[in-house]
Amino acid sequence: AQKVTQAQTEISVVEKEDVTLDCVYETRDTTYYLFWYKQPPSGELVFLIRRNSFDEQNEISGRYSWNFQKSTSSFNFTITASQVVDSAVYFCALSSSNTGKLIFGQGTTLQVKP
Amino acid sequence: DAGITQSPRYKITETGRQVTLMCHQTWSHSYMFWYRQDLGHGLRLIYYSAAADITDKGEVPDGYVVSRSKTENFPLTLESATRSQTSVYFCASSESWTGSSYEQYFGPGTRLTVT
Questions:
Q1: What does the pLDDT profile of chain A (114 residues) look like in tens digits?
Q2: Does A102 touch chain B if contact means CB atoms closer than 8 Å?
Q3: I need a surface site. Which of A106, B14, B65, B85 has the fewest CB within 10 A?
Q4: How far apart are the CA of B82 and the nearest CA of chain A, in angstroms?
Q5: CB-CB neighbors (< 8 A) of A37 in chain B
């Protein structure tokens, strides 16, 4: 069975601190996709990144970076120099290439205080 | 330029009533999905559809019915609403589920309260 675990329920940091959100996944598929979504207080889901299982290269996009390690089944998300606008719920998700169904983690609520 | 829309955005209904949540996308995406979001559970898949007239159950399908007679619409019906179905419902669509362009686009959500 597929499973995504986000062990951090809530994280609180002060603005400009770096913060890492953890994501651990379980799957028996050899081909799969990993995602991060952001859900701001307004409620919509914002796509941040997709990674396929064959691409372990880390990615950086501005203040955001992602570390994908198949050896530990982890896909962690780091925000550098956090800002108040980063306050949101962040979801990690897993999809099999066979079905396309997204399995979400429970989400991590990030609060960035000024 | 609508993308994916859901209606209504907010709904209050009584236990036992039938209620239908609408989802419409303008991209002609083949795949559509319904998720519910509950505190502590993240989002869980209710039903999905690979094309018009092709639907399948997700993780939590009990109490829900879907149909897809047209590619752009994917309504979700609660046949006899229960308080446990109080939730936020998200519809999503995607062009495919493999490849470099794979992404699910989410609607704004419908907040449903069953009293």
A1: 889 999 999 999 999 999 999 999 999 988 899 999 999 999 999 999 988 888 888 888 899 999 999 999 999 999 999 999 999 999 999 987 677 788 999 999 999 999
A2: yes
A3: B14
A4: 23
A5: 106
